[in-house]
Structures are given as C-alpha cells and as structure tokens.
User: What shape does this take?
Amino acid sequence: MVRRFNLADVFLVRRLQRQAACLDLEMALLWSQAPLSLAIMEYFPLGQGTTTTFVQNESSPRPLTIQGFVQAWDRPNGVSCDVGFIAPMLDDSAATFGLWRDLLEHLTVAKGAAGLQRVLARVPEEGRAIDAFRQTGFSTYASRRVLRFDKSTSVSATQPVGFRPLQERDAPAVLKLRHQVTPRPVQHAEGGVDGEHDPTAVLPWWKSHRTKHYVWDEDGELRVHLSILTGQEAQWLTFVLDPSFAPKVDTALAEAVTLASPNAMGPLYCSVRGYQGGLGPALESAGFEVVASEALMVKYATARAKVVVNKLSPALEKGVETAAPISSGHRCEKA
Assistant: This one.
C-alpha cells in the first residue's frame, strides 16, 4: 500500500536513495541533492513546503512485494509538480515495473486531490522508464537534450557586446518572446510560459545558488533571453531564442560562455528542446557534448469529485406509490 512518508520511513529512504532514479538533472548535476533530506524537510518549518514523498513500505511474504518511494516537488505556479526521484531503479523484474506504476498512479491522484492540475516529468528516452510512465497515463509533449561543456577546454574569450543584464522594464518583452517561440501544446502542458521548472524552489536554505539573466536586443525587439544558474557543483545555461536570430546564435553562445562565471565549480550544462531549431548544432560546434536525451511528459491530475445527488421527492422518500405517467396523447376516461 502506498502512503505518505513519515519519520518511521527514514531508514527505508536512506537505504533506497542510493538506488533511486533521478528525473531532475538540474538538481542532480548542480547540487547532488539527496531524497532523504528533502523528505525530512517536509516536517520542519524551515522546509519550503514544496516536496511530497510517498512510500511503499509494506512488508509481505508475497514474492512480488517490493519497497520503494516516489518524490515530487511543486512548481511555483501552484498548479503543477515535477517527479524528482523514484526508487528503486528499474530492472528487468515485473515487480519493480509494477511498483513504479503504483507509485506514479498514487502520486497523480494525491496531487489532484490537493488541487494540482498536472504532474510533469523529464524521462530518459532510452530504457523502460518511459514505458512505465506511458502505462500510467503520461504522454510526451516535447523532447530535450542536455549538453555538457568542460570549462577547462580552451575557448577564445569574447567580450560581451550583444547581451546586457535583464532589467525590470524588460519583463513584458521577455514574456512576449516566450509566447512567440513556445508551441501552444507545450504551453498547454506546462500551464503557460510562466510555469516553467525552477529547481531552486525546492532547495533548502543552506544550498547556495545564484541566477543571472541577460537579454539581447536587435531592431528594437528583444531577441534572446539567457539565464545562467550557478549551483554548488556546476552551472546551467537556458536560452530563449527568436528564430530570426539563428544566423547569430554562434556569437550569442560564445558570449554566454564568457558570461558564465569562470570561478564556479564544475562544468557548464545547457538544455535544448526539440523546437529550438539551430541551438543544438551550435552548441555541439562550440564543444558541448550530449549527455542525455529526455522526453518531457505530462499527466493531468485527477481527483475524486463529489457528485451532488438531487433530493428524492417526499413521496419516494416515504415509499408511497405514485401513479404511472400518462401520455398527453391519450385521455383518461371515467369508469
């Protein structure tokens, strides 16, 4: 039976987190966050109140019974959540595959009952995980690749001339750009362009992070929005590009690498969605290497709805027989 995590499950999660599949590469690569610390934070005021952990901790003599957990965190928009960890990792057994389906189904129903509208996940395109999600009702709405750049690689420094720091007055233009370049099905799946994944929202206060935003203007229009997220172990670039800017994407990328802090720990990562055109080839030409290919998946949360039952008529409540209805086409004659 799947249920909410409690402190009696600490040793279970501690043991299984070494076997957990992480479905949030930003969290894994920038902070190496442990599921147990996030689960425990649910019980303390210092927690962000965004993490939810469910466990299957039932002991049974049945051979197909297996222990595990699923962990998810809410997005800042308040209507979506992301699947972060599932344990144990999938193997060739039917028991583990069935556990994943049970955990995902329970998570979706529980989040729906809590008022959330969708559960999102970034799932490796290769392997059995994507089958487990599909059989639980998740569907793919986009794809993305994650690329890695080793900052020790020699690269010619480019003095930024196109990017400038984001200012408060740029907010409407950034929102307009996101609307223009994000396909409608993606906006629908993610709850709008302002409902994107934010890995920092679930971090405990002691996990350091910093995000810098830059924009590129051309012909009076905002053409590029760049964010650089710096974690404890790496940095992450995120681009939003106007398709008309494609001929200059190499220049923008060179400037972005320069803007990334050279003193930050670890490598530089960047994610590219399938609809982002020439950004992927430009990254590979600049020395980025593909480390993961993922399907972006969504399942719309459902909750048990209370159905209002109309009150029975007094005659039926008392069990009194009622006359059979008479068609208006026939007259009732006196005997």
